[in-house]
Amino acid sequence: MTKEPYVDAAKAAEFLDIPVRYLTDLARAGRLPGHPLSMGANRNVWRFRLSEIEQFMSKTGTNFPEPTDVELTKVSTS
Fold this sequence. Notes:
The chain has helices spanning 9-16, 20-28, 50-60, 69-77; strands at 7-8, 35-36, 46-48. By secondary structure, it is mainly alpha-helical. A three-stranded antiparallel β-sheet has the order 1-3-2. It is globular and about 30 Å long.
Protein backbone atom coordinates (compact mmCIF):
# COMPACT_ATOMS: atom_id res chain seq x y z
CA MET A 1 0.00 0.00 0.00
CA THR A 2 1.43 3.36 -1.05
CA LYS A 3 0.95 6.21 1.38
CA GLU A 4 -0.22 9.48 -0.06
CA PRO A 5 2.46 12.14 0.18
CA TYR A 6 1.90 15.43 1.92
CA VAL A 7 1.85 18.55 -0.23
CA ASP A 8 2.82 22.06 0.72
CA ALA A 9 0.40 24.94 1.09
CA ALA A 10 1.02 26.19 -2.45
CA LYS A 11 -0.05 22.86 -4.01
CA ALA A 12 -3.10 22.57 -1.74
CA ALA A 13 -4.13 26.15 -2.52
CA GLU A 14 -3.75 25.44 -6.24
CA PHE A 15 -5.91 22.32 -5.80
CA LEU A 16 -8.66 24.44 -4.19
CA ASP A 17 -8.04 27.46 -6.43
CA ILE A 18 -7.70 29.82 -3.45
CA PRO A 19 -4.83 32.03 -2.25
CA VAL A 20 -2.19 30.32 -0.09
CA ARG A 21 -2.69 32.75 2.80
CA TYR A 22 -6.43 32.05 2.81
CA LEU A 23 -5.74 28.30 2.87
CA THR A 24 -3.41 28.56 5.86
CA ASP A 25 -5.86 30.84 7.67
CA LEU A 26 -8.59 28.22 7.17
CA ALA A 27 -6.31 25.44 8.43
CA ARG A 28 -5.16 27.52 11.40
CA ALA A 29 -8.81 28.18 12.31
CA GLY A 30 -9.64 24.47 12.07
CA ARG A 31 -11.93 24.95 9.07
CA LEU A 32 -9.77 22.77 6.81
CA PRO A 33 -7.69 19.67 7.63
CA GLY A 34 -3.99 20.41 7.72
CA HIS A 35 -0.85 19.42 9.56
CA PRO A 36 1.25 22.20 11.11
CA LEU A 37 4.96 21.50 11.19
CA SER A 38 5.73 24.39 13.51
CA MET A 39 4.16 24.95 16.89
CA GLY A 40 2.95 28.03 18.71
CA ALA A 41 0.74 30.88 17.64
CA ASN A 42 2.38 31.37 14.24
CA ARG A 43 2.19 27.81 12.88
CA ASN A 44 3.43 29.10 9.55
CA VAL A 45 4.57 25.82 7.97
CA TRP A 46 1.76 23.51 6.89
CA ARG A 47 1.42 20.27 4.96
CA PHE A 48 -1.77 18.85 3.53
CA ARG A 49 -3.09 15.64 2.04
CA LEU A 50 -5.31 16.36 -0.93
CA SER A 51 -7.45 13.30 -0.18
CA GLU A 52 -8.18 14.64 3.32
CA ILE A 53 -9.22 17.98 1.89
CA GLU A 54 -11.39 16.32 -0.76
CA GLN A 55 -13.00 14.00 1.80
CA PHE A 56 -13.61 16.88 4.22
CA MET A 57 -15.22 19.01 1.51
CA SER A 58 -17.51 16.23 0.27
CA LYS A 59 -18.45 15.20 3.82
CA THR A 60 -19.27 18.75 4.94
CA GLY A 61 -20.53 20.06 1.61
CA THR A 62 -18.04 22.89 2.00
CA ASN A 63 -17.09 25.11 -0.89
CA PHE A 64 -14.74 27.85 0.14
CA PRO A 65 -15.63 31.16 -1.48
CA GLU A 66 -12.93 33.46 -2.68
CA PRO A 67 -11.91 35.71 0.19
CA THR A 68 -13.44 39.16 0.12
CA ASP A 69 -11.38 42.30 -0.27
CA VAL A 70 -11.94 42.93 3.43
CA GLU A 71 -10.46 39.53 4.36
CA LEU A 72 -7.50 40.09 2.07
CA THR A 73 -6.89 43.54 3.58
CA LYS A 74 -7.11 42.15 7.11
CA VAL A 75 -4.71 39.36 6.24
CA SER A 76 -2.18 41.57 4.52
CA THR A 77 -2.01 44.07 7.39
CA SER A 78 -1.52 41.36 10.05
